[in-house]
## 1
Amino acid sequence: MLVNTFCAAVNGLDVNVVKVEVSMTRGVQFHLTGLADTAVRESHDRIKAALQNNGYKIPVMDITINLSPADLKKEGSSYDLPLAIGLLAANGKVEMDNLDKFMLIGELGLDGMLQPVRGILPIAIKARAEHFKGLIVPRQNVREAAVVNHLDVYGMDSLSEVIRFLNGSLEISPMVVDTRKEFYERQEIFELDFADVRGQESVKRALEVAAAGGHNLIMIGPPGSGKSMMAKRLPGILPPLSLSESLETTQIHSVAGKLSRDTSLIYQRPFRAPHHTISQVALVGGGNNPQPGEISLAHNGVLFLDEMPELSRSVLEVLRQPLEDRKITVSRAKYNVEYPCSFMLIASMNPCPCGYYGDPTHHCACTPGQIQHYMNKISGPLLDRIDIHCELQAVPFADLSKMALGEPSEKIRERVMKARQIQEARFKDVKGIHCNAQMTERMLHQFAEPDAASMDMLRMAMERLKLSARAYSRILKVARTIADLDGSEEVQSQHIAEAIGYRNLDRGDWAERGI
């Protein structure tokens, strides 16, 4: 007898429908074909124990199971449930009438209980696209899958429940999640507020500009000057996620297995702050079983690299292409996957190894060679891709104790959202462009062309600082954002002047130190 069940294979964020073909004839052998990895091949032992502990047995026959398409690699334990149901259906224990209407996903414990698996959200989206009537998943994954409308999603606890449901002896209602109501009614609550940051007004202005245009930013200052404190408060002034951005971000975290069991959608922009010992694979993604890296987990959010020069040079250099293309393609001998990675890069660094170069209250003990070696850890091409450079000084205690609370994040966010609304209207007819940082060179001439006086100012800055063509584009993009914050349709000289002022690391005194 030949029986078909259906499941799915996740490759990056792409999902392919997999047909499990089970054939039984006379004999005593078991064959599993279709480019299955070790975890899939081990499913035979898990299924055998689960069936025995639920009163069933794998028949003593010649069993051949093919995972079609056979040239697509299958990984992980999510194939346990469709394999088990296929075996039972071929043995006459499960009705075959509805098997082609459902996609089955789940790992089996030895007691027959269903265990949660990764990547349920993109699988649910694929099931709807392929017009399956329903999706059967472990109960721990049901809320995650149920955000996909026009698809009946059933959460089950055990193999026996699935068998009774398919045989019609158990009625279970599909999980219903009003995605839009839940998304739009959920209030964003940020525990960290810019009101807690006293002083550093120029840096807070730079962060506001960065948030308004989606620009990358690096802060340079001594220890204790507030770099990490301000970076952690940046998500509180960013515009809220749209529903489409939330779904896209949730898919990435679903594939990576980063969603908690009670989470159906990610409602706030991600903030990822990996340790400086992170490896290339952990940052960009990959591995034996490819997984998204930190840059993809920060998609539609913020990637914060604290103490940036402490990361290895090779790790930093892999950021160059994702910062430009906003996607990362991981190519290995056995696979090729692509992940989105449109994120804001926020970095911080000390001005020297000890951290006190140029500090009026602390003596710097670093030699010129040590300082040059430290600064050279960040290459010129990488710095060119960072739009805003800002310098900090530690706030004196006398001033710190007297200062009133700073401007709250809510007010800053209002200005940021107004600027973003201007940009959304500007780019409404351009696919894939949502903010000024994403503008192409052609768009710069259309939307950020400065007047004659501003162009002369920019030309002098380019010649004096010996800026690259990429830095020229970055200045124009930042100037366009500053103009949007001012509500100006034209990029004026004061906007260009402020944007040039955000290229601190291009100044001569920094360049002499090795940058």
Note: Residues 302 and 344 are 5 Å apart (CA to CA).
## 2
Amino acid sequence: MLRDNDQPNGNPLREGIVTRTVPDPCTVVIFGATGDLTHRKLIPALYNIAADGELPPDLTVVGLARRPKSDDEFRQDLVEAAKKHSRQTVRDDVWSNFAGAVFYHQSEFDNAEGYKSLGKRLEKIEQERATGGNRLFYLAVAPDQFQTILQNLTAAGLNKPREDGWSRVIVEKPFGTDLASAQKLNAIVREAFPEEHTYRIDHFLGKETAQNIMVLRFANAIFEPLWDSRYIDHVQITAAETLGVEGRAGFYEKAGALRDMVQNHLLQLLCLVSMEPPTDLRADSIRDEKVKIVRSLRRFSAEAVAENVVRAQYTAGAISGKKVGGYREAENVAANSKTETFVALRLQIDNWRWADVPIYMRVGKRLPKSGTEISVHFKKAPSVLFNKESEAMAQNVLVIRIQPDEGISLRMQAKMPGTSLRIEPVKMDFHYGTSFGKASPEAYERLLLDSMAGDATLFARADEVEQAWEFIDRIQAAWREAEAAPVHEYPAGSWGPEAADELLAREGRAWRRL
């Protein structure tokens, strides 16, 4: 839950509105406890929350996996992972206190007896540690294990909340591979947990700047009156990576950039930057507005896909002066693969606010720089006063940097010092790290806290996921039907194929360089 964070004398900790997420005591049961996600993200996140003093003192972690391990062996594995991946230095005193609440339970995911013994162990731990019977099940496993785990949780009665407690589940992406699989997955989850107790996690929404988009728009009167087609020329959303597939080729061959990134991460950012003001800050009020945006996206015909979507694959090139191979050279990639490692789209939101404002998205691997940002490009000012300068004057651009250097900047026009009238763009810049004097928490820290507190604002709802897949499926279908549809190429270390530049150039626009 969110509570005002006031000092005893009633004064807030800092000027303005201050709220904080207050998690309930609970037992976090992690399926896939020996896996990469647990070691790189979940345990470091829980440790950092503990180090910041925001973890409930009675919180307990039970890791479940197939490998036989003792509690002490599991704890030793986790401390090594925390030292490697934590954003804060692991302190012995904090870790010792945290590790005392960590346990291990060995079981196969399809072993019914393992779930019965898990239930008995949870009851014992809950009595000893006074967790209130609250249970948070985290499925840090491949999607093909979801049904097995959920059905066994249901058979053992572990999905039902205990008296005065709650029982919730966190489901990791991908949420299906198309509309049909997403609907099937949602039905499977719904049989075990109601929608209000289901948390579909998208780590992009846990990033500070993503959370700040609504505050930027709705808490600042200087922006919201300009946030429509009368003043905005277009919007760009870019997610760039210098990395290649890095051992994920088996997964990536089946997914591609469109399904791996656009369907979830980029569409989520689009919803936040374009949604209408919610009636209040309750999770469903916000998610209602996000769903409206996805429903308002103009659906593509096969002809429109060819005109508005560019897909491409990286070839051999150089990143930071180091030679790298092409995508088809990676292990487990077909020699004639048509899987896209880059995709650019021109979208339209068919509603009153965004009519005729194009939204450009691009995502790609092996690009020159890593970063994710949203840039809002405003229309140029009338040129009647500065006729000679009008052609040279740049647009005002508001840039929301999601990662890695989280912050917000605004480009505006200013006169250069001197006797002549020379107009040049200048930048007002806000950085989270320097402005607030502390590092932003990792995305998983915020999302874990919210799930413990029962706040689903930053989690995807079933209808939102399905609407997003319905939009993406039309593009995938057009690609399948048009065997001759081009898969452009771009050398590693470039900003993508020329066709992506032409997507904007035909309307007199250009991609913003990160």
Note: Residues 249-274 form the longest helix (26 residues).
## 3
Amino acid sequence: MQTAHILLINGSPKGKRSNSLRLATSFVAGLRAQLESQGFAPIVDELHLAELNIAPCRGCFACWKSTPGTCCIKDDMQMVMQKEIGADYIIWSFPLYYFNVPGILKNMIDRQLPVNLPFMSANKDDYGSGSHDTRYDMTGTKHVLVSTCGFYSAEGNYDSVRMMFKHFLGKDSYAEIFCGQGELFRIKELSERTESYLALVSKAGQEFARGGIAEETKLSLKELLYPKESFEAMADASWGISKDGAGKLPEDEIFTRQMAALYNKDAYDGKERVLEMRYTDVKRSYQILLGKDGSSVVTDGSHTATTIIETPYSLWSSISRGEIEGAEALGKKLYHVSGDFDLMMRWSTFFGAGSARGGNGSGAQAASAAQEQDAKPQKKASMTTMLIPWICFWIAVAIHPVTGALITLGVCALLPLVMGSRPFVIWDRLSIALVAALSIAAYGSGNSDYTTTAGYLLFGLLWLGSCLVKEPLCATYVKYNFGGNQALRNPLFMKTNYILAACWGILYILTATWTFLLKRAGAGISVTIINNLVPVLMGIFTGWFQKWYPARLAR
């Protein structure tokens, strides 16, 4: 089996604690997996320059004139050059220091002089005014630069890095992954967002092994982990000192300010909110003001809180790191919520989707809000798709069973085309299938009373049947308002929707019952009025219950 040598050069003074190294190892993991799938046997060497003894270049040129190809300094650089010469892939991993590479990496680059010949040569790619050919044939070596920086974006900050590597590697001879907000990769509370980025870096490694990183992946890698305002507010708070020079901030205040920085002002719905965090173990409280222009933190309690969370700081920070499920902690009464519970139900909307492991709607998410930044907007299922066939059937068939059945069958056939921009879920498909079967029965029998009544019964059974699966019917459609699939991990959200699904199911089974009895009694007009009024009242109840019930459980 043919081998493939991968050399990862870690140029960070932090060594194995490097943030850039996390990206580089993810890239190598993808590269390695793809090479293995292609029948290669990858051999990976990691060189952590912070652990090596590499002295500065003396500029004596002994490696050119006295001992050609051999440096007069006897240290670890000889080993580094041998590994470079034998590598098929070289991954250069480093943080951005003063708009270039760290000193230990520049030092190692300076010491590469022995691999070059002393004689002047023309620059083959017209970059720079001169060049030196290498002593060894390294034309097949592929290079990748992987780096993080402390700015909100990498754009505009790597010009000197690119220029240096172009000089000694050649123009357009390397790939690059430059990522801003590098310090976020060490923060466990933000792992959901950073892990998704690392998965994208691994994908880039796979693509590189196949010939090059795809343009779509390159664009995704350039996306910000967090918006500029959020990142800079988090970064400023992380220093733990106040801008007015008042001194060092307590850890819980730093945490709260970073949590506030994750507020998504686009979620503002016209309602000003004041979230009060009462940390019972450290005996301090903070208010986070959430408005149309962003968020701010006040420490004097001067505002009237709309939502109050009473929790030990140690618990809330543990929830944010995913060490304990927030919904579980709430269920065990380890923390308490009072006031407007809507903020808790929509936490991921206000503080970013995927914010914590506690699950949307439990109020368990803390500072670890990780915003979804998909290249394409998420398509959302619509309950309208499920309801249209039923409504059409009940109205059209009631007017005329044969003509109404044909109209309803036409609606069922056209619905996938008309609603094609939205995903069709299982309840949409079942509804179309059931309504189509009922329409055929109405067409064949010419009877509307029995088929519409059967429709109420089947509709009720559809709702009740959904209570037996992991995602009840209503949750499938409303979860998008509470963070998407994350809402399904929240017991409060799920319990609420199971109860509502059961209520709707029972309602329509009762509707089938009284429809059958009242029509036999000749009270057709009363049936029409009741059957139109009751769902409206049930809708009002649903809107109230989905706010009241989770708040009641939380208290």
Note: The mean pLDDT is 87.
